[in-house]
Description:
The chain is mainly alpha-helical.
Amino acid sequence: MLPLVDAAxxxxxxxHWVIAAGLLGAFAFGVASAFFPPLNAEIFALAAPLAFPNQxxxxxxxxxxxxxGGKVSQxxxxxxxxxxxxxxxTEGEARSKREKDLPxxxxxxxxxxxxxxSLLDHRVAGGxxxxxxxxxxxxxxxxxxxxxGARPVPxxxxxxVGTFGxxxxxxxxxxxxAWALP
Length: 182
């Protein structure tokens, strides 16, 4: 018969290189989820207390840093990358014609999203939109990242506020799971 070992004792006997590899994997997962949405960062936050019983907080923070590193790179790609974004103004008329065919609730959602994105032009209100996007997921962080890159939002402000918002969401999610575990 095999001896029973509790989870805390087993986790404390894990070699440091395994923990380091897990944290490196968490960072890589964060970067990958920034570019490939099906790799959902919320799922990682839910699984972190199970995969890293003693280091779930560190794994969640490292994953968030990887996610925001990927988002900052997208921000910079939009800011310095192409001219197609600046040519979007000419597409505004075509968009308004398409919106007339949408149901009322979708038109209102589109108008609300455009209003929130327009707030990015102001430091405090833009910071609130970026924080809300990171903390609750609305408006979607992918959309806010692209819009902020095209607006006069300083990259350091986007990175700081976005990271703080994402940390709140992912650490609270992981903490609730860790608290619920026996």
